[in-house]
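Design a sequence for this backbone.
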């Protein structure tokens, strides 16, 4: 933990002074334009990838960048999505998958998750993604991780559209959905074509 203290001190000494005006405005103004839904993976840092300043992204990070389809009752992801769309009025929503995703690898390779039952239950939100990727596999019973990552981004965008706040915003033309895949090894970001998901807006 000492390096955290050193990092905070360096931030306060070298970074904050150059952005003092920005932070002064952000202290009373929170209007991000984009909701970024990414994986909890420590290698995927939305602000670093997009080179955005504080205040520009409203970020939700979950294992496997999963967004459960809307159901009655509340949960943390649903509440955050609703807040971003209804209260903050974000204009764009990005679901970003990534290469070498541990969640997608576990599903594709059928890892034993009996010691992590909460993880296993959470990954059920990718059942449709896994079924589609398996159907497109080159051999019986094989699932390509990269293909599953792409299918999962499309499936989570479809799940997003089941949330009433998102459905209303889509119908009114107030929000656009985007599917991205970040490659950790080469730093590229691929935007999936609209055809990858029927809910992607132009």
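Sequence:
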């Amino acid at each position: 933990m000492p390096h955290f203290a050193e990092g905070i001190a360096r931030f306060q000494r070298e970074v904050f002074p150059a952005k003092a005006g920005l932070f002064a405005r952000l202290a009373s103004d929170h209007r991000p334009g984009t909701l970024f839904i990414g994986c909890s993976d420590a290698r995927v840092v939305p602000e670093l990838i997009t080179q955005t300043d504080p205040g520009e992204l409203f970020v939700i990070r979950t294992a496997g960048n999963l967004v459960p389809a809307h159901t009655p009752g509340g949960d943390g992801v649903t509440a955050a999505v609703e807040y971003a769309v209804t209260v903050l009025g974000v204009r764009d929503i990005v679901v970003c998958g990534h290469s070498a995703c541990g969640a997608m690898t576990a599903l594709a390779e059928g890892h034993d998750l009996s010691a992590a039952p909460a993880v296993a239950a959470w990954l059920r939100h990718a059942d449709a993604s896994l079924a589609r990727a398996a159907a497109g596999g080159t051999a019986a019973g094989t699932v390509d991780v990269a293909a599953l990552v792409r299918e999962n981004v499309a499936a989570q965008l479809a799940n997003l559209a089941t949330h009433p706040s998102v459905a209303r915003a889509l119908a009114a033309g107030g929000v656009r959905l985007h599917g991205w895949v970040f490659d950790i090894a080469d730093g590229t970001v691929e935007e999936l074509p609209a055809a990858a998901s029927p809910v992607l807006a132009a």
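The mean pLDDT is 93.
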